[in-house]
Amino acid sequence: MTYKKNIRIIFLLTITMILILLTVCQASGFVYFVKTLNNTITKQESASFQLIIQNTENYDDYFTISTRDVNWLVNVEPASGLVPANDEIEFIVELRPKPLVAEGRTYFIPLKVKSETTGFHYEEKEKFAVYVVSPDLAPGRYTPTVTPTIYIDKNIDPKEKVSVRINLRNRNSRDLDGLKVVVNGEIFSKEYTTHLLPLEDKTNEILFEVDPLAEPGTKTLTLNLFFEDKKIGESSAEYYVQGYTDLKKSESKSTFLFKTESKYTIYNNGNQPGTAEKIFEMGAIERLFTKFSPDVAKEKGDDGKTYYVITQELDPETQLDIVVVTNYRLVVLIILLIIIAILLYYVLRSPVVVIKSADPLGKTKEGVSEVKVSVYLKNRTRRPLNNIRIVDHIPRIAEIEKKARLGSMEPINIGKSRKGSVARWELDVLEPYEERIITYRINSKLKLIGGIRLPSAKARYETRRGKERVTYSNNVNLIQR
User: Fold this and answer.
1) pLDDT for residue 313 is more than 70
2) What is d(CA 159, CA 36) in angstroms, rounded to the nearest whole number?
3) Which of 150, 217, 220, 367 has the most CB atoms in a 10 Å sphere around its CB?
């Protein structure tokens, strides 16, 4: 009952989640895009934005555009907000400030776009930013003023990336789009355009890759700003390019039959001595099968990991040769032998499983007089086995019960041998993965007090090539307790 109850709960939860997902998908069946047309205005002007609404549903929908900010008036063109199914309509949204709106501030107007069919709505705020300025500072009525500042480290390493930070501060309320920035550091340069909002303070970091062979010495970094093809600002800074030892590194690797040989060369191409260092990171198992030339030093890193390091001082125009050999051939050979052994087991093993068991019956204080014997057969292959013959021996102290019982398979013959009785059964075919159980009972001529030992059963069958094979079961020691 508990299992059925759990299944019912899981089914109800699944249906509920599907309904919720369908409801959400239906409710949010539209998207919108906003483009700023003019957002720097005086109190007597209106800011304008382009709003595109895409109806992603398969039915016509009517949309309304409004704001909860009582200090702004909203005018939408076209006035009708009907958007056909799977179509889009472009609207022009005008926002006009009321007299109480103060000048010299930036306002973010919360505009609500609502579907009248589903009632679902979005309220967008960040994309509807309006800058209200004094009429004397309206766009186009003053000269743009931007304060640029450029930063760079006093000393730089030409082998590493150079960080240059650029700070641009718009000193007035004019929107500057298409501001051209030119950076020239003698050994590196970059030119790009950016956009500055009114009174915005923007910082940008640029990483330069410089020529490692750059001549050391003091360099000048300059920053020039251009707006509408006119230079409106500049900044500069000095930095020093360090001298260094140039260590050229090269490596090669070859792999053959699970043996990898890596060669590393470090060449000092500089004009002063330097320290050549090669660091290797590998696990403990890989280290067991790896040899280094020259020898390595084992070191502990700050991150807690173990590293193997080769270090050597190099004079100018000298080199360090490192050879690393990792050889897994012995491990692979052992694994292959194991795999071959497993494959041979599955190829050569008997397709028939024979298991023999015995259960005492008629147990009294004087001992056991009757035993039930079971012989379990199973074809563990995908091919049928033909002409199965089962032979089982019964010790002299007991004799097989010849009376047939319901559900049991009668032997085709019960004979005699020097050691007792011999029972035989035959099966025409044992289908793939088929299981059979042969049961019979034996009666002891005497009460079994210490127990009885039953020899193994034997199964003969024919292979696909017509050869006869034999499989034996286990022995059974039935001990009376």
Assistant:
1) yes
2) 44
3) 150
In this structure, is the dihedral angle defined by the CA atoms of residues 281, 287, 290 and 296, taken in order, positive or negative? positive
Residue 304 DSSP symbol? S
Cα distance between residue 35 and residue 168, in whole Å:
24
3-state secondary structure of 356: strand
Taking every pair of C-alpha atoms in the chain, what is the biggest distance, in angstroms? 129
Which of 29-33, 226-230, 241-245 is the least confident region? Answer: 241-245
Euclidean distance between CA atoms 105 and 198, whole angstroms: 10
- Look at residue 249 in the predicted model and tell me its pLDDT: 85
Residues 277 and 295: their CA atoms lie apart, in Å, by: 13
Helix (H) or strand (E) holding 377: strand 367-379
* Cβ atoms 208, 165 nearer than 8 A: no
Q: Looking at the whole model, is its pTM more than 0.85?
A: no
For residues 240 and 222, give the distance between their C-alpha atoms in angstroms, rounded to a whole number. 14
Tell me the C-alpha to C-alpha distance, in Å, between residue 444 and each of 211, 230, 399.
Answer: 101, 119, 7
Structure tokens that stand for 361 in this block: 């019956």
pLDDT by residue (tens digit) across 81-116? 888 989 998 999 999 999 888 887 888 999 999 988
Give per-residue pLDDT as tens, 392-405: 988 888 888 777 66
Q: Give the residue among 94, 23, 28, 20 at the shortest CA–CA distance from 61.
A: 28
| DSSP element (H, E) containing 17 | helix 2-27
CA distance 354 to 378: 7
Tokens of 86: 């799977």
Summarised one tens digit per residue, pLDDT across range 133-158 is 877 655 555 568 888 999 999 998 88
Q: Identify the band that residue 26 occupies on the pLDDT scale cut at 50, 70 and 90.
A: very low
**SS3 for 102?**
coil
For residue 78, whether the previous peptide bond is cis, meaning omega lies within 30 degrees of 0, is yes
Domains and CATH numbers, the chain: 26-137 (2.60.40.10), 146-241 (2.60.40.10), 247-330 (no CATH), 351-479 (2.60.40.1530)
Evaluated on CA atoms 403, 408, 411, 417, the torsion sign reads negative
Burial of 448 (0-12, 13-18, 19+ CB in 10 A): buried
- Would you say how long the chain is, in residues? 481
Over residues 167-178, mean pLDDT: 82
Residue in this structure with the two tokens 């509408």, named with its chain if needed: 228
Given strand 72-77, what is the order of strands in its sheet? Answer: 30-38, 47-55, 87-97, 72-77
